[in-house]
């Protein structure tokens, strides 16, 4: 049976960093809704044109558009063993839709690690973040620097700073998270699927705690 992990946490908590490491360690696919939107924007697809301004503002893309994109992604062959979902679901309607989609693949949301980090730390993480152009590998100029400045360690591509990592947009994204996504914490806690992870620890320690929280068949 496939295993599905939903990473919850505010912008800058380390969802993308950890999802990449955990997916590699377990053989699960890494599905980042934000990376998928940014890929569409880069390729100037219809969807990319539709969502570009929304991401720049730090608002959420409408549920129907987001759900349709994730539904297609989950059907890809690399998701056969399951997936680490990074940034989806982000609203109660998306969480409900996800249950329906996973049931079609004979699966369910197995575990929801909730990565917790204080707000001032989130802002300093996002303002120092650098991302690789080719595949979205994530760095921080102080906390997790690349070996060579401005170059991705993994694929050698150029590093850039995201449009939505400007201070006022970061603050907006954190507000949107508290208003629209934070209710999912109690929702998944009530279902007994939530595991709290201290995201203020070093990256390797957060990974260790995350791997322990996964169901046995994924470890
Ligand atoms: P998305 O790309 O998902 O952005 P986000 O949720 O705001 O999260 P981030 O990517 O900013 O943070 P992260 O938790 O991944 O942290 P990271 O690992 O990079 O979404 C972007 C936009 O797309 C949204 O605003 C919305 O418009 C749209 N969207 C996406 N999904 C949607 C959905 N489901 N519905 C509707 N709209 C949607 O780490 C951050 C920094 O910290 C890095 O520099 C990293 O090196 C550093 N770092 C990581 N861990 C540590 C650590 N332990 N110690 C020190 N530094 C660390
Ligand atoms: Mg991310």
Structure explained in plain terms:
This protein has 219 residues and is α/β, with parallel strands linked by helices. It has a domain at 3-117 and 181-218: P-loop containing nucleotide triphosphate hydrolases (Rossmann fold). It contains 9 helices and 8 strands. The strands form 2 sheets. Strands 2-3-1-4-8 form a 5-stranded parallel β-sheet, sandwiched between helices. Strand 5 (129-132) and strand 6 (138-140) form a beta hairpin. Helix 6 (119-127) packs across helix 7 (167-181). The relative contact order is 0.20. Bound molecules: BIS(adenosine)-5'-pentaphosphate and magnesium ion. BIS(adenosine)-5'-pentaphosphate is lined by residues 9, 11-17, 33-34, 37, 54-55, 58-61, 66, 87-88, 90, 94, 125-126, 128-129, 138-140, 143-144, 164, 173, 202-203, 206.
Strand-helix topology:
Layout: E1 3-7, H1 15-26, E2 29-32, H2 33-42, H3 46-57, H4 63-74, E3 82-86, H5 92-104, E4 109-116, H6 119-127, E5 129-132, E6 138-140, E7 159-160, H7 167-181, H8 183-190, E8 194-198, H9 203-213
Parallel strand pairs: 1-3, 1-4, 2-3, 4-8
Antiparallel strand pairs: 5-6, 5-7
Helix pairs in contact: 1-9, 2-3, 4-5, 6-7
